[in-house]
Amino acid sequence: MPGAELGPDRVVVTGATGRMGEELLAACEERGHDVLAVSESDDDAISGADLADHLEPGDVLVDFTLPEASLGYVETAADAGVPVVIGTTGYDGAGEASIEEAAEQVPVLRASNFARGIQALLGAVREAVAALPGYDVEVTETHHNGKRDAPSGTALSILDGIDDARGDELDRKYGREGVDPREDGEVGVHVRRAGGIKGEHEVLLAGNEEVLTLTHRAESRGVFAAGALDAAEWLAGREAGLYAFEDLI
Ligand SMILES: NC(=O)C1=CN([C@@H]2O[C@H](COP(=O)(O)OP(=O)(O)OC[C@H]3O[C@@H](n4cnc5c(N)ncnc54)[C@H](O)[C@@H]3O)[C@@H](O)[C@H]2O)C=CC1
Ligand SMILES: O=C(O)C1=N[C@H](C(=O)O)C[C@H](O)C1
Protein backbone atom coordinates (compact mmCIF):
# COMPACT_ATOMS: atom_id res chain seq x y z
CA MET A 1 0.00 0.00 0.00
CA PRO A 2 1.97 3.02 -1.20
CA GLY A 3 1.72 5.94 1.19
CA ALA A 4 -0.16 4.04 3.83
CA GLU A 5 1.89 5.73 6.55
CA LEU A 6 0.62 9.08 5.24
CA GLY A 7 -2.88 7.83 4.66
CA PRO A 8 -6.13 9.61 5.55
CA ASP A 9 -7.39 9.89 9.12
CA ARG A 10 -10.76 8.83 7.73
CA VAL A 11 -12.18 7.62 4.40
CA VAL A 12 -15.48 9.20 3.37
CA VAL A 13 -17.37 6.68 1.22
CA THR A 14 -20.15 8.09 -0.93
CA GLY A 15 -22.70 5.74 -2.49
CA ALA A 16 -22.05 3.54 0.53
CA THR A 17 -24.93 1.17 -0.27
CA GLY A 18 -23.92 0.69 -3.90
CA ARG A 19 -22.02 -2.24 -5.39
CA MET A 20 -18.70 -0.40 -5.08
CA GLY A 21 -19.67 1.39 -1.87
CA GLU A 22 -20.12 -1.92 -0.12
CA GLU A 23 -16.77 -3.17 -1.43
CA LEU A 24 -15.07 0.01 -0.24
CA LEU A 25 -16.57 -0.28 3.25
CA ALA A 26 -15.34 -3.86 3.48
CA ALA A 27 -11.87 -2.92 2.27
CA CYS A 28 -11.69 0.01 4.72
CA GLU A 29 -12.60 -2.31 7.58
CA GLU A 30 -9.95 -4.79 6.46
CA ARG A 31 -7.30 -2.04 6.39
CA GLY A 32 -8.43 -0.49 9.68
CA HIS A 33 -9.50 2.86 8.22
CA ASP A 34 -12.08 4.98 10.04
CA VAL A 35 -15.03 5.55 7.75
CA LEU A 36 -17.81 8.06 7.19
CA ALA A 37 -20.54 6.44 5.08
CA VAL A 38 -22.65 8.68 2.86
CA SER A 39 -25.89 7.37 1.43
CA GLU A 40 -29.43 8.48 0.71
CA SER A 41 -30.75 4.99 1.39
CA ASP A 42 -29.18 4.00 4.71
CA ASP A 43 -30.32 5.52 8.01
CA ASP A 44 -26.96 4.58 9.56
CA ALA A 45 -25.15 6.78 7.00
CA ILE A 46 -25.20 10.54 6.61
CA SER A 47 -27.07 12.17 3.76
CA GLY A 48 -25.22 14.06 1.07
CA ALA A 49 -27.10 17.19 2.17
CA ASP A 50 -25.28 17.00 5.53
CA LEU A 51 -21.86 16.12 4.11
CA ALA A 52 -20.37 19.63 4.44
CA ASP A 53 -21.16 19.65 8.17
CA HIS A 54 -19.35 16.34 8.71
CA LEU A 55 -16.14 16.68 6.67
CA GLU A 56 -12.96 17.11 8.71
CA PRO A 57 -9.28 17.84 8.02
CA GLY A 58 -7.57 14.52 7.35
CA ASP A 59 -10.50 13.07 5.42
CA VAL A 60 -10.23 11.70 1.88
CA LEU A 61 -13.48 11.24 -0.03
CA VAL A 62 -13.81 8.21 -2.32
CA ASP A 63 -16.64 8.40 -4.83
CA PHE A 64 -18.15 5.58 -6.84
CA THR A 65 -21.68 6.83 -7.49
CA LEU A 66 -23.23 8.33 -10.62
CA PRO A 67 -22.33 11.62 -12.27
CA GLU A 68 -25.45 13.44 -11.08
CA ALA A 69 -24.52 12.70 -7.47
CA SER A 70 -20.75 12.59 -7.78
CA LEU A 71 -20.32 16.19 -8.90
CA GLY A 72 -22.11 17.50 -5.80
CA TYR A 73 -19.95 15.38 -3.51
CA VAL A 74 -16.77 16.45 -5.29
CA GLU A 75 -17.69 20.14 -5.04
CA THR A 76 -18.53 19.81 -1.34
CA ALA A 77 -15.25 18.05 -0.64
CA ALA A 78 -13.26 20.60 -2.62
CA ASP A 79 -14.90 23.49 -0.77
CA ALA A 80 -13.96 21.77 2.50
CA GLY A 81 -10.35 21.21 1.41
CA VAL A 82 -10.81 17.43 1.34
CA PRO A 83 -8.95 15.39 -1.31
CA VAL A 84 -11.07 13.24 -3.62
CA VAL A 85 -10.63 9.87 -5.32
CA ILE A 86 -13.09 9.52 -8.19
CA GLY A 87 -14.08 6.15 -9.62
CA THR A 88 -17.44 7.22 -11.05
CA THR A 89 -17.69 7.11 -14.85
CA GLY A 90 -20.09 8.51 -17.45
CA TYR A 91 -19.57 12.25 -17.06
CA ASP A 92 -20.42 14.69 -19.85
CA GLY A 93 -18.16 17.56 -20.83
CA ALA A 94 -19.54 19.86 -18.14
CA GLY A 95 -18.93 17.18 -15.54
CA GLU A 96 -15.34 16.74 -16.70
CA ALA A 97 -14.86 20.50 -16.39
CA SER A 98 -16.27 20.50 -12.84
CA ILE A 99 -13.75 17.85 -11.83
CA GLU A 100 -10.91 19.92 -13.26
CA GLU A 101 -12.16 22.95 -11.30
CA ALA A 102 -12.20 20.92 -8.09
CA ALA A 103 -8.60 19.89 -8.77
CA GLU A 104 -7.61 23.57 -8.59
CA GLN A 105 -8.69 23.53 -4.92
CA VAL A 106 -7.72 20.04 -3.70
CA PRO A 107 -5.83 16.94 -4.90
CA VAL A 108 -8.15 14.87 -7.10
CA LEU A 109 -7.19 11.40 -8.35
CA ARG A 110 -9.45 9.94 -10.98
CA ALA A 111 -9.41 6.61 -12.79
CA SER A 112 -11.98 4.89 -14.96
CA ASN A 113 -10.60 1.62 -13.64
CA PHE A 114 -8.66 1.04 -10.41
CA ALA A 115 -7.60 -2.51 -11.29
CA ARG A 116 -3.82 -2.63 -11.60
CA GLY A 117 -4.23 -5.13 -14.44
CA ILE A 118 -6.05 -2.54 -16.49
CA GLN A 119 -3.11 -0.18 -16.15
CA ALA A 120 -0.96 -2.99 -17.54
CA LEU A 121 -3.48 -3.56 -20.34
CA LEU A 122 -3.43 0.13 -21.28
CA GLY A 123 0.35 -0.01 -21.64
CA ALA A 124 0.24 -3.25 -23.63
CA VAL A 125 -2.39 -1.84 -25.99
CA ARG A 126 -0.31 1.27 -26.68
CA GLU A 127 2.73 -0.94 -27.41
CA ALA A 128 0.76 -3.30 -29.67
CA VAL A 129 -0.88 -0.47 -31.65
CA ALA A 130 2.48 1.21 -32.18
CA ALA A 131 4.06 -2.10 -33.26
CA LEU A 132 1.23 -3.06 -35.65
CA PRO A 133 0.41 -0.02 -37.77
CA GLY A 134 -2.39 -0.58 -40.27
CA TYR A 135 -3.99 -3.44 -38.30
CA ASP A 136 -7.75 -3.24 -37.75
CA VAL A 137 -8.63 -2.61 -34.10
CA GLU A 138 -11.83 -3.62 -32.27
CA VAL A 139 -12.66 -2.90 -28.61
CA THR A 140 -15.25 -4.94 -26.69
CA GLU A 141 -16.39 -4.32 -23.11
CA THR A 142 -18.72 -6.56 -21.10
CA HIS A 143 -20.38 -5.70 -17.77
CA HIS A 144 -23.24 -6.69 -15.50
CA ASN A 145 -26.78 -5.98 -16.60
CA GLY A 146 -27.13 -3.09 -14.12
CA LYS A 147 -24.46 -0.87 -15.62
CA ARG A 148 -25.95 2.41 -16.88
CA ASP A 149 -23.23 4.06 -18.90
CA ALA A 150 -21.93 2.76 -22.22
CA PRO A 151 -19.33 2.34 -23.36
CA SER A 152 -17.50 1.84 -20.10
CA GLY A 153 -15.13 4.50 -18.85
CA THR A 154 -12.37 1.93 -19.20
CA ALA A 155 -13.23 1.35 -22.87
CA LEU A 156 -13.06 5.11 -23.43
CA SER A 157 -9.65 5.19 -21.75
CA ILE A 158 -8.51 2.33 -24.02
CA LEU A 159 -9.79 4.16 -27.10
CA ASP A 160 -8.04 7.36 -26.08
CA GLY A 161 -4.82 5.39 -25.61
CA ILE A 162 -5.18 3.85 -29.08
CA ASP A 163 -5.61 7.29 -30.63
CA ASP A 164 -2.62 8.58 -28.68
CA ALA A 165 -0.43 5.66 -29.75
CA ARG A 166 -1.44 6.16 -33.40
CA GLY A 167 -1.12 9.92 -33.34
CA ASP A 168 -4.57 10.37 -34.89
CA GLU A 169 -8.23 9.89 -33.94
CA LEU A 170 -9.99 6.80 -35.20
CA ASP A 171 -13.71 6.99 -36.03
CA ARG A 172 -15.45 5.10 -33.22
CA LYS A 173 -18.01 2.74 -34.83
CA TYR A 174 -20.56 1.56 -32.26
CA GLY A 175 -21.77 -1.75 -33.70
CA ARG A 176 -22.87 -2.57 -37.21
CA GLU A 177 -26.12 -3.40 -38.97
CA GLY A 178 -27.44 -3.73 -42.56
CA VAL A 179 -24.88 -3.34 -45.34
CA ASP A 180 -22.09 -1.87 -43.32
CA PRO A 181 -18.56 -2.95 -44.31
CA ARG A 182 -15.57 -1.64 -42.41
CA GLU A 183 -14.07 1.60 -43.69
CA ASP A 184 -10.53 2.88 -43.28
CA GLY A 185 -9.92 4.86 -40.10
CA GLU A 186 -12.56 3.06 -38.02
CA VAL A 187 -12.27 1.36 -34.65
CA GLY A 188 -15.15 -0.95 -33.74
CA VAL A 189 -16.59 -0.46 -30.23
CA HIS A 190 -18.86 -3.18 -28.84
CA VAL A 191 -20.81 -3.20 -25.59
CA ARG A 192 -22.31 -6.23 -23.87
CA ARG A 193 -24.48 -6.22 -20.71
CA ALA A 194 -25.21 -9.58 -19.09
CA GLY A 195 -25.57 -11.20 -15.69
CA GLY A 196 -23.24 -10.12 -12.91
CA ILE A 197 -20.06 -9.76 -14.96
CA LYS A 198 -17.68 -7.51 -12.98
CA GLY A 199 -15.84 -6.05 -16.00
CA GLU A 200 -14.18 -7.52 -19.10
CA HIS A 201 -12.24 -5.55 -21.70
CA GLU A 202 -10.84 -6.99 -24.94
CA VAL A 203 -8.74 -5.28 -27.60
CA LEU A 204 -8.34 -7.16 -30.91
CA LEU A 205 -5.81 -6.20 -33.57
CA ALA A 206 -6.11 -8.00 -36.92
CA GLY A 207 -4.05 -7.80 -40.09
CA ASN A 208 -1.24 -9.46 -42.06
CA GLU A 209 -2.95 -12.86 -41.67
CA GLU A 210 -2.68 -12.76 -37.86
CA VAL A 211 -4.78 -11.66 -34.89
CA LEU A 212 -3.57 -10.33 -31.51
CA THR A 213 -6.12 -10.26 -28.64
CA LEU A 214 -5.43 -8.53 -25.31
CA THR A 215 -8.00 -9.16 -22.55
CA HIS A 216 -8.54 -8.14 -18.92
CA ARG A 217 -11.19 -9.70 -16.69
CA ALA A 218 -12.03 -8.44 -13.21
CA GLU A 219 -13.17 -11.37 -11.09
CA SER A 220 -14.21 -9.28 -8.08
CA ARG A 221 -15.05 -5.65 -7.36
CA GLY A 222 -12.54 -5.96 -4.56
CA VAL A 223 -9.80 -5.33 -7.10
CA PHE A 224 -11.28 -1.91 -7.82
CA ALA A 225 -11.75 -1.11 -4.12
CA ALA A 226 -8.15 -2.08 -3.33
CA GLY A 227 -6.80 0.20 -6.04
CA ALA A 228 -9.04 3.08 -4.97
CA LEU A 229 -7.92 2.80 -1.34
CA ASP A 230 -4.27 2.63 -2.44
CA ALA A 231 -5.00 5.86 -4.30
CA ALA A 232 -6.67 7.45 -1.24
CA GLU A 233 -3.69 6.56 0.96
CA TRP A 234 -1.31 7.98 -1.65
CA LEU A 235 -3.32 11.16 -2.26
CA ALA A 236 -3.61 12.30 1.37
CA GLY A 237 -1.41 15.31 2.05
CA ARG A 238 -0.52 16.06 -1.60
CA GLU A 239 -0.76 19.38 -3.38
CA ALA A 240 -3.92 20.39 -5.21
CA GLY A 241 -4.07 19.08 -8.78
CA LEU A 242 -5.46 16.34 -11.00
CA TYR A 243 -3.69 13.00 -10.57
CA ALA A 244 -4.04 9.62 -12.28
CA PHE A 245 -3.78 6.05 -11.00
CA GLU A 246 -0.57 5.54 -12.97
CA ASP A 247 1.01 8.27 -10.81
CA LEU A 248 1.19 5.82 -7.91
CA ILE A 249 1.67 2.40 -9.50
N1 LIG B 1 -13.12 3.29 -11.56
C1 LIG B 1 -13.37 2.02 -11.26
O1 LIG B 1 -12.44 1.22 -10.99
C2 LIG B 1 -14.78 1.56 -11.19
C3 LIG B 1 -15.78 2.43 -11.49
N2 LIG B 1 -17.08 2.07 -11.33
C4 LIG B 1 -18.09 3.13 -11.55
O2 LIG B 1 -18.62 3.47 -10.27
C5 LIG B 1 -19.96 3.93 -10.41
C6 LIG B 1 -20.85 3.17 -9.45
O3 LIG B 1 -20.89 1.82 -9.86
P1 LIG B 1 -21.75 0.80 -8.96
O4 LIG B 1 -21.25 0.82 -7.57
O5 LIG B 1 -21.84 -0.49 -9.70
O6 LIG B 1 -23.19 1.50 -9.01
P2 LIG B 1 -24.42 1.30 -8.01
O7 LIG B 1 -25.64 1.74 -8.78
O8 LIG B 1 -24.37 -0.04 -7.38
O9 LIG B 1 -24.12 2.36 -6.86
C7 LIG B 1 -24.28 3.74 -7.10
C8 LIG B 1 -24.44 4.41 -5.75
O10 LIG B 1 -24.65 5.79 -5.97
C9 LIG B 1 -25.81 6.20 -5.28
N3 LIG B 1 -26.51 7.23 -6.05
C10 LIG B 1 -26.91 7.15 -7.33
N4 LIG B 1 -27.53 8.28 -7.69
C11 LIG B 1 -27.52 9.09 -6.60
C12 LIG B 1 -28.01 10.40 -6.34
N5 LIG B 1 -28.62 11.11 -7.28
N6 LIG B 1 -27.82 10.91 -5.10
C13 LIG B 1 -27.17 10.20 -4.16
N7 LIG B 1 -26.68 8.96 -4.34
C14 LIG B 1 -26.86 8.43 -5.55
C15 LIG B 1 -26.68 4.96 -5.14
O11 LIG B 1 -27.50 5.07 -4.00
C16 LIG B 1 -25.63 3.88 -4.96
O12 LIG B 1 -25.28 3.78 -3.59
C17 LIG B 1 -20.30 3.77 -11.89
O13 LIG B 1 -20.08 4.99 -12.54
C18 LIG B 1 -19.27 2.75 -12.38
O14 LIG B 1 -18.96 2.86 -13.75
C19 LIG B 1 -17.47 0.83 -10.89
C20 LIG B 1 -16.49 -0.09 -10.59
C21 LIG B 1 -15.07 0.19 -10.75
O1 LIG C 1 -19.77 -0.24 -13.79
C1 LIG C 1 -18.87 -1.08 -13.49
O2 LIG C 1 -19.07 -2.15 -12.89
C2 LIG C 1 -17.49 -0.74 -13.89
N1 LIG C 1 -17.28 0.44 -14.44
C3 LIG C 1 -16.01 0.98 -14.77
C4 LIG C 1 -16.02 1.49 -16.21
O3 LIG C 1 -17.07 2.09 -16.60
O4 LIG C 1 -15.01 1.29 -16.90
C5 LIG C 1 -14.84 0.11 -14.39
C6 LIG C 1 -15.10 -1.35 -14.32
O5 LIG C 1 -15.01 -1.93 -15.61
C7 LIG C 1 -16.39 -1.71 -13.65
From TrEMBL:
Protein name: 4-hydroxy-tetrahydrodipicolinate reductase
Native source species: Salinirubellus salinus
Membrane as UniProt keyword: no
InterPro entries hit by this protein: DapB_C, DapB_N, DapB_N_CS, DHDPR_bac, NAD(P)-bd_dom_sf
SUPFAM superfamilies per the UniProt record, alphabetical: Glyceraldehyde-3-phosphate dehydrogenase-like, C-terminal domain (SSF55347), NAD(P)-binding Rossmann-fold domains (SSF51735)
EC number: 1.17.1.8
Record flagged with keyword Phosphoprotein: no
Entry keywords, A to Z: Amino-acid biosynthesis, Cytoplasm, Diaminopimelate biosynthesis, Lysine biosynthesis, NAD, NADP, Oxidoreductase
CDD domains reported for this sequence: DHDPR_N
Gene: dapB
Pathway: Amino-acid biosynthesis; L-lysine biosynthesis via DAP pathway; (S)-tetrahydrodipicolinate from L-aspartate: step 4/4
